[in-house]
Amino acid sequence: MADGETLDELEGAVVRCRRCPRLVKWREKVAREKRASFQDQDYWGRPVPGFGDPEARVLVVGLAPAAHGANRTGRMFTGDRSGDWLYRALHRAGFANQPDSTAPDDGLELSDAWVTATVRCAPPGNKPRPSERKNCREYLEREIDLFLDGLRVVVPLGGYAYAHVLRIFRDRGWSVPSPMPDFSHGLEIELREGVPRDGRAFVLLASYHPSQQNTFTRTLTEAMFDRIWSRARELVEG
Q1: Which of 8, 11, 66, 205: disulfide with 80, CB 3.0–4.6 Å?
Q2: Beta carbons within 10 angstroms of residue 171's beta carbon
């Protein structure tokens, strides 16, 4: 991260990015062809920046924008069923002012939470390649740096985001367990910076992703999801 970088500057860098030809081609194709139910809407069709409270102490990390969700609306987890689940749960836990997430101008505001993703462009089949994850990693790292001093909780949604976040902090020399614990819903890991016990620290709190695959099969229920955000609230308030 450049010294003194702001969230607005990072957002500009994210939105202009064209590092991954496959993702650029796909996101723009989806934005041109559209889904029938959204034919009258203008699609965003670009990388999607993070969204939320600039003073957040809770960082929520998803996988990637949905083709007809955030790739359409331009706001993370907005306009699809995963976002409906996420923002309903954040609202119940007091992190959002309303339970709905339909469009960037719908009045949604987050309090003490910031929502982002490992990859900023919608990938075909919702499966980014390792090279695309690597290309996008810099943006998440720069984002983390902007929140790090006040960070109390990181909630990766799903095993992909969980492993990605742990790799970032392991590579930075933080106290990541070795071997890395297997992903599980509700898993908590305290991560500390370097060796001193009085260094910066936060809790990684893992959650299933609120994808339809998980919610339709009841792998993730609303009660299970609510417990994640209630616990995040406890950790923030100390």
Answers
A1: 66
A2: 11
Above pLDDT 90, what percent of the chain?
Answer: 95
- DSSP assignment of the chain equals --TT--HHHHHHHHHH----HHHHHHHHHHHHH--GGGTTS----S----EE-TT-SEEEEES---TTTHHHHSSTT-SSHHHHHHHHHHHHTTSBS-S--SSTTS---BSSEEEEES-SSPPGGG---HHHHHHHHHHHHHHHHHHGGG--EEEEBSHHHHHHHHHHHHHTTB---SSPPPP-TT-EEEEEBSS-TTS-EEEEE-B----HHHHHTTSS-HHHHHHHHHHHHHHHH-
Give pTM, 2 decimals. Answer: 0.95
Condensed to tens digits (0 to 9), the pLDDT of residues 130-140 reads 999 999 999 99
What is the spatial order of strands in the sheet that 188-192 belongs to? 51-52, 113-117, 58-62, 153-156, 201-205, 188-192
What is the Cα–Cα distance from 95 to 105, expressed in whole angstroms?
18
Of 142, 114, 116, the residue nearest 56 (C-alpha): 114
220, two tokens: 């993730």
Report the DSSP pairing between strands 51-52 and 58-62. unpaired
Instruction: Enter the tokens of residue 23.
Output: 């993702």
User: Per residue in 94-109, is it b (16+ CB within 10 Å) or e — as a string?
Assistant: ebbeeeebbeeeeebe
Query: How many residues are present in the chain?
Result: 238
d(CA 27, CA 19): 13
